Structure formats: structure tokens, C-alpha cells
């Protein structure tokens, strides 16, 4: 091309590098939830895995006879069991580092191994002192501070407030969206007496699936972005496995309702409740008990195809189309 015409051409764009592409993609930033290192943590995690399904099993006949009153009365017992599990087995939000190395640390999280700036008397902020108390239970850190920071055990008094706060969030935030999702997916609207049952179902699902998540991650936007995108890693405590299992179990539990067996136990929402309970128990056993998939994530991340690969594909398709046209012209001649 003549040098005199080069100024008329638009400037060529620099090649897009892989780093620039990956910068535009969202990436998960959360660590697996650890199990506390206390002797009772491991034991009660096994007990709790069996205790919740056994309780629902013992209440099955009452649920069939009177779903509304049974779900309403059982909600307090199930919430108490879940609160005990959180307080005994899990680190509370702010008591462990839940952000990945190289990624952001979630709001309210801290690490005992992180360097703290030296402060004079009276200059330490209230937030810093509260954070140190939550991490160490009012005691100074030892050489095993990394383990204590990961566990975030602290004292029993330091666990009561996070547990109550998590319970309040669990009973107020997720139930209404879960109820709307159930209605969209086919929960009965008529008779209207079934709508309160759907709301109670949402409360039970919220307590079983979301209470441990609120307890360990608090209200961090980064953590709940990963939750909404199903990006949390499966953990040794069985928290994320039980949450995923609860939703899958509820979906499978709705199948028997469509069968024309005309059984009393097929009415709404008995089979869905049992499916949620069995699903969360199976998910906890697979991840927390057998250790399957710990540290792995459900891969739903966005991916971009290479521009050069797309260009080659388009060029090949264009060549193939041209060859087809040539063959047709030869046949017509």
C-alpha cells in the first residue's frame, strides 16, 4: 500500500492479552469454612447431622395431620439446633479470614497473623479492640495463633451475640424471596390457605440452609455475591454442602406430589420439607463426613473465547459456505 494512503486507515487496536480479559471476569474470593478445633466441634457435627433428620422423621405423622401448626411449632426447635451447631462447630464472622490469599478479605474479617500497627495507650480504636477480643477470647495470641484465627473460637459469651444476630437475619431476609421462588416454581396459590404453608416452608429452608452462612460470613457483600453465584467452596464443616443439598432435595421432593397415588402424605408441603431435610443431611455427610469435594467450587464462572479462535472459525465457515455455493453452480451447469 502506498505510504501516502496509510494516514487514511484507522489505527489498529493493540492485541488483547489474556490478563486484560481475565480482569473483566468475576472471580470467587472466599475460603472454605473451617471446623473449630475444640474436641466437641467434630463430635457435635456428627451428632447434628443425624439429629435434624431424626427429629423431622419423628414429627412426620404430625406434619401430615396438621402441616401448619407442626411447621410453626417445629421452627423453634430446628432454629435452636442450628444455633447450637453454629456456636459449637463454626467460627463466627470476624473470627476467621474468609478471603482467599491474593483476594479481598471480607468485611468484618481479621487474622491473628496479620501485622497490626503499634498504638499508644488510648489510641486504639474500639473496632480493633473488639476484633482482637473476638479472635482470642480476651487472651493474648500464642504461637498457634494461625490455628486459633482460623477457628475463631473465643469464649462462649462471644458467640451468643453473633448467633442471635444471625438468627434474626435468617428469619427476616431469606424467607420472603424463598416463598416467591417457590410460588414461581409451582407452589399452590389456591386454596389461599396454602400460602402460609409456603411461607413456613421458606422459613424452614432459611434456617437449615442460610443460618450457618450468616453466622460465618455475616453480611459481607463479597461473600453473598459468591453465595448467589454458587461460588462458595465446599468445606469440612459441611455448611455449603448442606445448603446446596437442601435446595436440590427440595426440588426432588416436589416430584412425588405430582403422582396420582392419592396418599395423605403427598399434600403440600410435606414431601418438599422431607426432601430439604434429607438433601441437607446428605450434603453434610458427603462434604463434612466423607470429605468429598472440599475446597472445590461449582464452576459457573463466565468465560471468554479467544478472539483469534473465533476469527479462524468464522473464516472456516465462510470457506465452507463458498465451496457449497461453487458445488451447486457446477451441478446446475
From TrEMBL:
Main location: endoplasmic reticulum
GO cellular component: endoplasmic reticulum membrane
Lipid bilayer topology: Multi-pass membrane protein
Biased composition (Low complexity): 136-145
UniProt keyword terms in alphabetical order: Endoplasmic reticulum, GPI-anchor biosynthesis, Membrane, Transmembrane, Transmembrane helix
Nucleotide-binding as UniProt keyword: no
Pathway where it operates: Glycolipid biosynthesis; glycosylphosphatidylinositol-anchor biosynthesis
GO biological process, any: GPI anchor biosynthetic process
Region (Disordered), start-end ranges: 1-24, 113-154, 314-333
Subcellular location: Endoplasmic reticulum membrane
Transmembrane region(s): 44-65, 77-97, 164-185, 197-217, 237-259
Name of this protein: Glycosylphosphatidylinositol anchor biosynthesis protein 11
Record organism: Cladophialophora yegresii CBS 114405
